[in-house]
Design goal:
By secondary structure, the chain is α/β, with parallel strands linked by helices. 45% of the residues lie in helices and 13% in strands. The protein folds into 2 domains: 3-46, Orthogonal Bundle (Arc Repressor Mutant, subunit A); 61-319, Rossmann fold. A 7-stranded parallel beta sheet has the order 1-10-9-5-2-3-4, with helices on both faces. The chain has a 3-stranded antiparallel beta sheet with strand order 6-7-8. Helix 1 crosses helix 3 (34-46), helix 2 crosses helix 3 (34-46) and helix 5 packs across helix 6. It is globular.
């Protein structure tokens, strides 16, 4: 938004929401039309200048947030969603809230690590513009497989994040999994790859979803041709319940001995835990096994999820 329009939107929002002036009164004071005031107020909401919260005595989200915070030690945002909505509609609501939550956290000089996947793709479509300077969006893991380079899919997500925050985008042009661990070791010694790894090591924010083996809505890594039948069998034998940025874990958060991780291009759990702010976005109660494993591994500092998933997570935690 141009600076002058940004200033007008802020002024209109202050008069409307804080001073209880009518649109007609604001139009007179700003010497403009009522329709222009309406557009300014819409811009103020769309760009995050105004955030509206509704406190309902029937709302269970705050109670669920407190319980999850107590059980898992993460800051949490529960998105109220009707049970009648389907999986895609629920994902869209969660993605919208995630985009609004992430925006205020992004500052200038930030290095933002972003994983690819269906959840982050949805989030990227709801991001609102925010002016930052010298910020970088870096891809967390490679996206290629035997069927596709994955470049278009992953780069669309990175491009939307970069456009929203005026940030430079750094893609990671390697496969999601190498065929051999030795190949990964050799590539990690290449200077072009080391440059991306160095950026990842300096991340101030990491944003990711959770891939789940048994989700009703299959995660992209399990449904997109990234793993063959033998590899899926290996994951089952290792009791894997999910992944973050194509690095796998069990329900207790452990990842030792999972051989596929030696070929994965995502950051190790130890590397990820070094990032100060780690935002996990989850939609769909069938992902709870994967989410619980990610939380047990300490991979998230902040969690954004739908209400049904929050209820399942609280119930899961109470039983364990």
């Amino acid at each position: 938004m141009p600076r002058s329009r940004h200033s007008d939107a802020l002024r209109a929002a202050q008069m409307y929401y804080l001073q209880d002036l009518t649109m007609d009164a604001i139009a007179r004071e700003l010497r403009t039309s009522r329709s222009t005031v309406s557009r300014l107020l819409s811009s103020a909401r769309d760009t995050g200048l105004v955030q509206i919260q509704i406190r309902s005595p029937l709302d269970t989200a705050p109670e669920l947030e407190g319980m999850i915070r107590s059980q898992y030690g993460v800051d949490v945002h529960v998105v109220p969603v009707l049970d009648t909505l389907n999986e895609a509609e629920t994902l869209d609501r969660v993605a919208m809230q995630a985009a609004r939550t992430i925006g205020p956290l992004v500052d200038s000089n930030a290095i933002i690590g972003v994983a690819w996947g269906a959840t982050l793709s949805a989030v990227s479509r709801h991001l609102t513009r925010k002016i930052t300077h010298d910020s970088i969006v870096v891809q967390l893991n490679g996206a290629g497989n035997m069927q596709t380079t994955g470049i278009t899919y992953a780069s669309d997500i990175m491009r939307r994040f970069g456009s929203a925050y005026g940030a430079r985008v750094e893609q990671f042009p390697v496969p999601a999994f190498f065929d051999h661990a030795a190949t990964k070791t050799a590539m990690w010694n290449e200077r072009s790859v080391q440059r991306i790894l160095a950026l990842q090591a300096r991340m101030s924010i990491a944003i990711f979803g959770v891939g789940s083996v048994d989700s009703d809505y299959p995660s992209h890594v399990y449904a997109g041709g990234y793993l063959d039948e033998r590899e899926l069998s290996l994951l089952a034998a290792d009791d894997v319940v999910g992944d973050v940025a194509t690095v796998f874990f069990r329900s207790d958060g452990s990842s030792d001995g999972i051989t596929l991780n030696e070929r994965s291009t995502g950051p190790s759990h130890d590397q990820l835990r070094q990032v100060r702010r780690r935002i996990c976005v989850v939609s769909g109660a069938s992902k709870i096994n994967g989410l619980q494993g990610a939380l047990a591994a300490g991979l998230a500092t902040e969690l954004i999820l739908d209400e049904a998933s929050a209820r399942r997570l609280v119930s899961f935690g109470a039983q364990s």
